[in-house]
Amino acid sequence: MIDYNKFYYIFPPRPKNAIPPSELNEWDDNSMIGQLKFNGSNAVIFMNGKDVFVFNRHGDRLTNIDLDKDEISKLYSGSGWMVINGEYLNKSKKDENSLTFNHKLIIFDILVYNSEYLLGNTFIQRIELLDNLFNKKESEKEYLFKVSENIYRVKSFLNGFKDMFDGYTKIDMIEGIVLKRKNSKLELGNTTDNNFKGQIKSRKATKNYKF
User: Fold this and answer.
1) Is residue 209 included in any domain, yes or no?
2) Parallel, antiparallel, or unpaired: how do β-strands 104-113 and 32-38 relate?
3) Does the N-terminal or the C-terminal CB of the chain have fewer CB atoms within 10 Å?
């Protein structure tokens, strides 16, 4: 761990390598954690108990946010800086009830806590930290934990990845699954290419229209 005592942008971990859904069973070997992939905008949230900055994965301020700043601020705990990574749903996609599920934040990782940059922490250690900070309160959706009215945490699955994919990608706002190696350690996020080696993604097919 190193100290994170003042704001600077951190590129979030992101999968680059993709596999077809037919290969998901090959990764179901107890070494990975599966999280559903939502169709929104990656959000990196920087908080220090006073300021709240929300950036996208490119290092720019995330626009089109219609989520109360006070609700985001209530995520903060501890002291110093806290940096959380999630998906902000802003594309008017629909849930399993064919209802628009928009302007919601879904948390899936934490990068800084108590001004400690969690370098060297494994992914499963960071999930356990999120469990301790936000608990595992069930929500109206079986695949999400509830944090507040418009903020959720994605559930993490240890097996059954192909069944997850087949079942949940029928939902409009869920575009696939990301598999993250349990013991993959967080590296310095100073470029977009860091922290991708411990992750793979599998996405549902999309229609390409040619005119």
Assistant:
1) no
2) unpaired
3) C
Residue 87 placed within a domain: yes
Q: How many residues does the chain have?
A: 211
179 CB-near residues (< 8 Å, 6+ apart) = 15, 24, 27, 32, 33, 34, 161, 199, 200, 201, 202
Distances (CA, A) of 149 to 39, 62, 100, 153: 20, 20, 15, 12
* Separation between Cα atoms, residue 203 and residue 21, nearest integer Å: 7
Say whether pLDDT at 59 is over 70. yes
Higher pLDDT, 209 or 184: 184
Overall domain count for the chain:
1
For residue 145, the tally of other CB atoms under 10 A from its CB is: 21
128 belongs to a structural domain: yes
Q: How far apart are CA 113 and CA 110, in angstroms?
A: 8
Measured over the CA atoms of residue 202, residue 185, residue 129 and residue 70, the dihedral's sign is: negative
Within-domain flag for 116: yes
Q: How far apart are CA 41 and CA 193, in angstroms?
A: 18
CATH code of the domain containing 62:
3.30.470.30
Tens of pLDDT, residues 75-131: 999 999 999 999 999 999 999 999 999 999 999 999 999 999 999 999 999 999 999
Domain of 26, in residue numbers: 2-6+15-203
Beta strands in the chain (DSSP E): 2-3, 17-18, 32-38, 41-47, 52-55, 82-89, 104-113, 116-117, 144-146, 151-154, 174-181, 199-203
